[in-house]
């Protein structure tokens, strides 16, 4: 049986053959398992821009897109829909932190 131990000097996790404490809990591994890493990620969001307190949903939408451009966040507008009550519903795909967006954007 293996246990996980965190080495604080070089900030790496090491496997040892005895029971070690790792951040106040014990992790036991019966076999060595390959690491899993995220290779690409993307968020699909549905955002509703309401017409509250005299706000203009179109202006809020333009301001939101300008903020995404300023932060250099990759995005793609999937669908925009105007509701009968004056609000705007937008479906948007955008990158998640610094992960690759390979295969998500055209």
Question: What would your notes on this structure say?
Answer:
This protein has 106 residues and is mainly beta. It folds into 2 domains: 1-34, no CATH class; 42-95. Helices cover 13% and strands 35% of the residues. The strands form 2 sheets. It has a 3-stranded antiparallel beta sheet, with no helix packed on it. It has a 3-stranded antiparallel beta sheet with strand order 4-6-5. A hairpin with a 5-residue loop joins strand 5 (75-82) and strand 6 (88-95).
Average pLDDT score: 77
Envelope shape = elongated
Order of secondary-structure elements: EEEEHEE
Share of β-strand residues: 25-35%
**Count of beta strands:** 6
Biggest sheet character: 3 strands, antiparallel
Rg on CA atoms, Å: 23 Å
Uncertain residue segments: 15-26
How many individual domains? 2
Summarize the structure.
Helices cover 13% and strands 35% of the residues.
């Amino acid at each position: 049986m293996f246990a996980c131990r965190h080495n604080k000097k070089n900030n790496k996790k090491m496997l040892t053959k005895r029971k070690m404490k790792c951040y106040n809990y014990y992790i036991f591994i019966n076999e060595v398992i390959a690491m899993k890493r995220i290779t690409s990620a993307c968020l699909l969001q549905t955002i509703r821009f309401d017409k509250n307190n005299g706000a203009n949903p179109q202006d809020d939408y333009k301001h939101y897109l300008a903020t995404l451009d300023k932060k250099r966040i990759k995005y793609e507008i999937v669908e925009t829909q105007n509701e009968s009550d004056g609000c705007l519903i937008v479906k948007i795909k955008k990158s998640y932190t610094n992960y690759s967006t390979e295969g998500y954007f055209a």
